[in-house]
Amino acid sequence: MRVALVHYWLVGMRGGEKVLEALCRMFPDADIFTHVHDPARISPLLNGRVIRTTGISRLPFARRLYRNYLPFMPAALEGLDLTGYDLVISSEAGPAKGVIPPPDAPHLCYCHSPMRYIWDQRHLYRKEASLPARLAMPMLAHRLRQWDVTSAARVDRFLANSRHVAARIEKYWRRGSDIVHPPVAVDDFAPVAAEERGDFYLWAGELAPYKRPDIAVEAFTRMKKKLVVIGGPDGARGALARKAGPTVEFLGKASFETLKDRLARCRALVFPGEEDFGIVPVEAMASGRPVIAYGRGGVLDTVRDRETGLLYGDPSVEGLIGAIETFEREGLDSLDPAVLQSHARQFDETHFRQGVAGALTDLGVELSG
C-alpha cells in the first residue's frame, strides 16, 4: 500500500510535526507532501523520508515568508500528482486537506484546527499583521474560506484532535468528525521529589498572542509572585520583558532538558490562552505537576478541575489572579503526582495509533502488523 502524508509546512517541530512523526512510524514507507521544507529545522525521522514540495517552495524566501504565499497554496495543493497512492492522510492546520486524491484512494484528514487566520481568529491575526496584509486580508480571506469549505468535501473522514476542534469542524465545514487526541511523549517526563520543587509558576510555549503570555506576565507582576517564562521568538520576549516586574524570569527558547526540569519543579503550569488541544498541559501532568488553565478549548479534554489542576472562567488578568489565589488557598499544589502522571498516560502514542487505525478500518483500509 502506497501512502501519501500531506502536511501544511515543515519549518519547525511543534505539535503538528509530532503527529506527522507518529504517522511516519505507523507507515514506514509513506511519502510526505508539503508546501515548504526546511531540513535544518526538522527531525531526522522526517528528513529521512521522501519529501516532495509544492510550487510554493520555489517562491522567493519561501522558508521564511511562506505565510505570505497563503493565497497561492490552494492551487499549489491541487497541482500535486498523487497518482498511484492507495491512501491519503492529510494533517490540517494550514492548507493541506485540499489535495485531489486518486478516485479509489480513501482520504483521512487529521485536523489540528481549521485555519485560524481565516475563521475564528481572523481579527486577531489581522490586528497583528503589517499594513499591506491588513488591507489585503478581507478579500483574500473571503476567497480562502470559500475554497476551504469546498475542499472539505474531498475528505472521506475527519479526525479532530479535541472536542473543541470537532465543534469548529462542524461549525465551519458542516462535517462530522471523530476525536483522536494527538500523541504526547509522556514517558519523556517524570516527577521529582517534593523537596526538589521550587516556589515558582511556569508559562511555556510559543509567545504567540492567542496563547496570552501577556496575561500571565501582568498577573504575576501585579502579585509579585515568581513566574518563569519559556519560549520565543526573541522579539515577542523583549516586548513582554519590558512590561514585566522583577519576579518574572524569561529563559527564551530553552532546551528540552531545561523545559523538563522546570515542568517537574514548578508549583503549577499556567495556561491562560484558548488552544485547540494544548500539549504542554499534558507534559506538565506527566511531570507530576498540576495545571491552572482558562477553561475553554482543548484543556477541557485534558485537565480535570481540582483533580489534575484548576479551571477558571474569566479570561482576564483579574481572572488569572483569582485562580492563583484559589489554587493556593485550596492547596492544589499538593495534588498527588502519581495521579497526575497516570492521567497523562491516556494521551500517549498508543492511544493515538489505535484511534487512527480504527478510523482507517471504518474506511475499509486494513493495516498489517
Tag the structure with descriptive keywords.
single chain; seven-stranded parallel β-sheet; Rossmann fold
Q: Can you describe what's shown?
A:
This protein is α/β, with parallel strands linked by helices and about 375 residues long. The chain folds into two domains: about 5-185 and about 350-360, 3-Layer(aba) Sandwich (Rossmann fold), CATH 3.40.50.2000; about 185-345, Glycogen Phosphorylase B (Rossmann fold). Helix content is about 40%, strand content about 15%. It contains 15 helices and 13 strands. A seven-stranded parallel beta sheet has the order 3-2-1-4-5-6-7. The protein has a three-stranded parallel beta sheet with strand order 8-9-10, with helices on both faces. Strands 11-12-13 form a three-stranded parallel beta sheet, with helices on both faces. Strand 6, helix 7 (about 165-175) and strand 7 (about 180) form a beta-alpha-beta unit. Helix 8 (about 215-225) packs across helix 13 and helix 11 (about 280-285) packs across helix 14. The longest helix is centred in the middle third of the chain and has 22 residues, at about 130-150. The radius of gyration is 21 Å and the shape is globular.
